[in-house]
Amino acid sequence: MTETDNNNNIFRRCANKLFFGINMSWIKVIIFAVATAVVTAIFLILPIFDNTSFREMGTTFEAWIFFAIIIMTNCKKPLESALKTFVFFLISQPLIYLIQVPFSYMGWSLFMYYRTWFYWTLLTFPMAFAGWYLKKGNWLSLLILTPVNLALAFFGWGFLTNILIYDFPSHLISVLFCFGQIALYLAVFFKGWKYRLAGGGVVIAALIVMAVMYFTGGGMETGVKMPLPDEPKFSENAVVSFDDSSFGEATITIPEEGYVDVKVKKQGSAVMTITDNGKEYKYDVKTVRSDSHTHVDITPKQ
Hints:
By secondary structure, this protein is an alpha+beta fold. The protein contains eight helices and seven strands, in the order ααααααααβββββββ. Strands 2-5-6-7 form a four-stranded antiparallel β-sheet. Strands 1-4-3 form a three-stranded antiparallel β-sheet, with no helix packed on it. Helix 6 runs parallel beside helix 8 and helix 7 runs antiparallel to helix 8. The longest helix has 26 residues. It starts with a helix and ends with a strand.
């Protein structure tokens, strides 16, 4: 047996244990829910995790998809899968907010953000019922898994194009985790290459579409409504420029409303100048990271 074959066998044994070899009792589900909630709350509370991949556990779905699939594939029946996954989310999600309350300036108001997660918790019941059939490894399984893989591809592409390429290696773990899950699920749940090629082909096609949309769009963010200067209007002859041409580009699309179309090419800041009728209006433009995305902030230069 070669070293490669041995490594493949180790991978296969570990994967089978993770997804098929756990006795997913109710007590384990509850402990799993509490443990993931505590860890997530820690990532959200401690400043050291700000703007890192770990903090995404409390704001996006990719980690919770992974946890849900572990529960679903270790259940013996579809109904058991639905019930235990539902209870897992019913415990973990509000507990994340509850732990944060003493440490947040918002206090109990934090629970206003739980509403969205509650709706998703309700949806976990039918989704986990169907998700149990991933264990079958057939075309139905692939049909069930494909929307999950497409969502992971979308999340991974977002981390890649909104953060990683502008501030490497920030969120590299998020990118690898999203695309790694896709490869893992196709490798573990399907034995035939026809299933893996079909599932991987759909993901690759989706990524090509996203890449075309991204590169034809040409930048990080467009259509930023900038603050108006003292003058209420610009003329059609107004010209806009950056002091650093490599930072990005901007055009005035609606002069009378002060609407500029900004496309940023890299992380950082620059001064934007609008020249109109012999007057200059200067603005500080900078990229601002907020959890899983980056947006553009424009303010009048003091």
